[in-house]
Amino acid sequence: MFHLTTERPDDAAAIEALLDKAFGPDRHSKISYRYRNAAPPVRGLSRVARADADGRLLGTIRYWPIEAGGADALLLGPIAVEPSLKGRGIGVALMRDTLDAAAWMGHSRIVLVGDIGYYARFGFAPAAPLGLIMPGEKPERLLACALAKDAFAGVSGVLAPRRSVRGGGLIAA
Ligand SMILES: CC(C)(COP(=O)(O)OP(=O)(O)OC[C@H]1O[C@@H](n2cnc3c(N)ncnc32)[C@H](O)[C@@H]1OP(=O)(O)O)[C@@H](O)C(=O)NCCC(=O)NCCS
Which atom of ligand 1 sits closest to the CA of residue 95? Predict the structure, then answer.
C-alpha cells in the first residue's frame, strides 16, 4: 500500500500541505519551529511515505540538527500522516525506519516534542529527568531517546539550534 523513500526537494509543497492539514496553518508559531528555522532538515533521515499505486505523498518525518547541553543531537519532527490513512502503520514505519537509519549513521541522541503515549513504543522517555530543557515548551512533552548506551550520560541543559549536522550524519546543503 505504501513505501518509504528519502525526501526530495520536489516533495516540499506536498509536505507543507500535509503539515497544514495535520497541525493547522499556525503550526509555525510552535516552539520547535525555532529550531527548524535554523537549518534545513537532515538529508537521508527526512523521509516520506508514498502510495504504491501513484506515488502520492502519504506521510512525512523530518529531523533537524540541534545541540543538547552542548552535545550533538537531532530534533525529530514533525511527523504526520494523511488524516484519512491514520492507524494503518505509516507512522510506525516512518519512525522505525528513520530511527534505525539514524543509529546506522552514527547519531545517538534524539529528542522530540510529543505525546509519550505514542512515542514510548519507540524508546522515548521524558527528557526533563535528564536535565534537558526546551525553553518555552511544556517539560512533560519533551522526550528523549538514546540510540547508543549511555548517550545522554553527562548531557543536560538547554537545547539550542544548530546550523548543520556534525558527526555521523550527512550535511544538508
Ligand atoms: C501521530 C501519527 C503520526 C501516527 O501515525 P499513524 O500512521 O496514524 O500511526 P500508526 O498507524 O503507525 O500507529 C497507530 C497507533 O498509534 C497510536 N497513536 C496515534 N496517535 C497517538 C497519540 N497521540 N498518543 C498515543 N497513541 C497514539 C494509535 O492508537 C495506534 O495504536 P495501536 O497500534 O496500539 O493500535 C498520525 O496520527 C498523525 O499524523 N497525527 C497528526 C499529527 C501529529 O499529531 N503528529 C505527532 C505530533 S506529536
Answer: 12
Residue matched to cell numbers 514533525 = 78
Q: Distance between CA 170 and CA 166 in Å, rounded?
A: 8
Name the one residue in this structure whose C-alpha cell is 503515549. Answer: 117
Coil, helix or strand for 157?
Answer: strand
Pairing status of strand 157-161 against strand 57-68: antiparallel
Q: Is the pTM of this model over 0.70?
A: yes
Predicted local distance difference test score (pLDDT) of residue 63: 97
Pocket of ligand 1 (CB under 6 A): 22, 79-81, 86-92, 114-115, 117-118
Would you say domain 2-161 falls under CATH 3.10.250.10? no
Closest of 153, 156, 151, 154 to residue 168, by C-alpha: 151
Domain ranges (residues) in the chain: 2-161
Cell of 121: 513504543
| Residue pLDDT, tens place only, 46-81 | 999 999 999 999 999 999 999 999 899 999 999 999
State how far the Cα of 56 lies from the Cα of 49, in Å rounded to an integer: 8
Sign of the CA dihedral with 61 first, then 110, 160, and 105 last: negative
Task: Give, as one character, the DSSP assignment of residue 129.
Answer: G
Grid cell for residue 4: 518509504
